[in-house]
Amino acid sequence: AVTPLGRAAAASDFVSGLATFLDFRSRASINPDVSLHLLREPADEWIGLDASYQMHTDGIAQTRAFMFDQNGHMGTVLTSAMATILEPPI
User: What is the reported pTM?
Assistant: First the structure.
């Protein structure tokens, strides 16, 4: 069985992908880190994420998400990202 802490950790791994609005035909992005800060464990199996994404013109980005459940806010997730322009196919 997955523990409440395990569910929160698994949900935090989706944050970078939820908030990234890149055209993946021309750009690629990796997130080298994920930082999860919990105030408490989830109350049940449902976890919500409210994510936002900011990217500088040099391709360095940061994603932040507020994590919540039926009882309200329970934590924050931060990720870094590096984006690059893909070379056109030959």
Answer: 0.79
